[in-house]
Fold:
Amino acid sequence: MFRVSDLTVAIKKNQQVMLRGVNFEILPGETLILKGKNGSGKSTLLGAIMGDPRYEILEGEIEFLGQEIQNLSTEGRSLLGMFLSFQTPPEVNGVSTTEIVRTGLMERGEKVRLDEVRNGLMANQKLLGLPMFFMERECGVGMSGGEKKKNEILQMLALKPKFCMLDELDSGLDMESAGKISQILADYKKETGASFLITSHNLRILEKLKVDKVVELVGGGLKVMDERGAMNGGGTK
Ligand code: ADP
Ligand code: MG
Structure:
């Protein structure tokens, strides 16, 4: 479903190599947890996978659904069914979440009326514990850390990606919200068969999700951890 082979990535502006020869694979419906200390390159890896122009792929391949994607634009990757929820979600001035979601759906060739988009978002907002007209607000603008994270999940649920990358989703979320989102992600996975790549410091967000693999970034390379053992208090935070 998704594979990274020998990936070497540098930060474009200073050509500093952050990741060296990274390899991993995620099968359909699998959840992979990416660990690593602050600054170990987790966000860099997710950004490079999504085509963030701040990063440059020096070597290696990224494959999604049998296709090499490292030369596609971020939008092209999104259209194929990839999604990245940012560690620090951006603020989009003057554009509501509803409009962003509608544009995303139309780009996928789905003809959706504005009220249909709104109804879908409203139902999911309720699940996330967000206020009724939240999706009409400027996307990200003036939102608290936790609201920004929920807003990312709101967009994910509407766009229905097959491969969801969630970067430090639980930072800024209270325990109750993290538990709620864990259940929402588990339900989404059951409904769609989607795969997940998650970086997280908090196990609450993983509570309801079955974790298939755990890997850790150390010194720019990936170390495979013992599968579920590491997550069940194996002493490898
Ligand atoms: P993590 O997500 O694991 O905490 P990051 O991928 O955010 O780590 O960062 C890895 C290293 O790369 C850090 O030293 C960070 O300062 C640096 N870095 C990441 N992105 C940029 C950028 N756009 N410009 C300069 N340095 C960057
Ligand atoms: Mg990070």
Remarks:
- The beta strands are 2-11, 16-26, 31-35, 55-64, 67-68, 82-85, 163-167, 195-199, 213-218, 221-224.
- The radius of gyration is 17 Å.
